[in-house]
Design a protein that fits this description.
Strand 7 and strand 8 form a beta hairpin. Helix 1 runs antiparallel to helix 6. The chain is built from six helices and 19 strands.
Length: 374
């Protein structure tokens, strides 16, 4: 007589290992780096103390309980207890997006943004929008590329692994996993991270942090360092890449979206003749109230501006309407980057979803083993 016996020891080992390693077990980290705001960090730090508002994260597509809705950690800023809010960052490029065909703008918005009717931003549930990444060809429409928690995703979207019960506000973004990765635009030869902090952390701000306020830095300045733990509070001091004045900004301005294009071969210093910076401002920034700023009458926190390439005053790179956003409703752009959508799709679909891989492993280990029953 023959019978079947199932050995489950390996299943227990795999499940336990994933539970211990969570949230990085099975993370889908081949693409995308991001951070969230100070209000969002409280959802994560009780369990993951280093998940602060200056930490840089990666997607985590695994479903609970083996992972998510918790993002994977790429590298930390100051670490546990940090009050430094990185509200814009870029790994930098050595090629301007305007010189590359087939690019899309990838962006996030504030949770209260509505988007224009019929857009993906408008379709997404209210207060869930701030956890998502959208894309646009700057033709007045947009689509969802990543959904925060992966529930009720729009067609073609992937999961970031963020909590949306109290919406996580994704407020800084680079579509690459590292400075050397290419999604259509040439990367800088040396690894770098460029960032800005919330104006509250700077000199005269409501929550000044000594690394920035002590040196007179503000939310309109841009800093440069290496993409590794401690980038936001380097013991040797913070290096400034560009002063807000060089960007045509004034006191009370706060950069909250950033793309750095460094073309002069000196990635540690902004040259407005050779380099370019693309950015957005928070909706309450002082310059948006100035009649002559960027050469346009109507402007908002959902517009994209550019300075450099010989232009010493900012101009509007793209309007809120180009992105499918509605400035009349207070829409606010929180992060921006550029990439070729097909390359983003190649990275996102090149291997099975992590949850699928886990199910395959479970199936393998649960496969029956024969033995002779006497």
């Amino acid at each position: 007589m023959r019978g079947w016996k199932i050995s489950c020891v390996s299943v227990v080992v795999v499940a336990a290992a994933c539970a211990i390693a969570s949230p990085v077990c099975g993370q889908d980290d081949r693409i995308v780096s991001f951070s969230y705001d100070a209000g969002s960090s409280a959802q994560y730090t009780p369990t993951w103390p280093n998940y602060e508002e200056d930490s840089i994260f990666a997607p985590n597509a695994v479903d609970p309980p083996l992972g998510g809705p918790t993002p994977a950690l790429r590298f930390m800023g100051k670490g546990a207890g940090s009050a430094i809010e990185t509200d814009a960052f870029s790994y930098g490029y050595k090629q301007h997006p305007r010189d590359v065909n087939m690019l899309s703008a990838f962006f996030s918005v504030s949770p209260q943004s509505t988007g224009v009717a019929g857009s993906a931003v408008h379709t997404e549930a209210f207060d869930d929008r701030g956890s998502d990444i959208f894309a646009s060809e700057l033709t007045g429409a947009n689509r969802q590329v990543y959904d925060g928690n992966g529930l009720f995703m729009q067609p073609g979207a992937w999961k970031l692994g963020l909590a949306e019960s109290v919406s996580t506000n994704l407020d800084a973004l680079d579509m690459r996993s590292s400075p050397s990765q290419s999604l259509g635009i040439a990367s800088l030869p040396d690894p770098s991270i460029y960032w800005s902090v919330a104006d509250k952390n700077g000199f005269g701000g409501a929550d000044p942090q000594p690394e920035y306020a002590g040196l007179g830095y503000t939310g309109r300045d841009i800093f440069v360092g290496l993409p590794l733990d401690g980038y936001s509070n380097h013991p040797g001091g913070i290096s400034k890449y560009a002063d807000g004045g060089d960007l045509g900004l004034t006191a009370g301005d706060d950069i909250d979206a950033l793309v750095v294009i460094d073309l002069d071969g000196n990635p540690r210093d902004f040259d407005p003749v050779a380099d370019a910076i693309i950015y957005s401002l928070t909706g309450n920034s002082a310059s948006l109230e100035l009649v002559d700023f960027a050469g346009v009458a109507d402007k908002s926190g959902a517009d994209i501006f550019q300075v450099g390439l010989g232009m010493f005053v900012p101009s509007r790179f793209a309007s809120a309407g180009d992105l499918g956003l509605n400035p009349m409703n207070g829409d606010d752009l929180d992060a921006i980057d550029f990439a070729i959508p097909s390359l983003v799709g190649d990275y996102s679909t090149a291997v099975p979803e992590p949850a699928t891989l886990i199910m395959l492993l479970l199936g393998l280990f649960l496969s029956p083993r024969r033995r002779q029953v006497r």
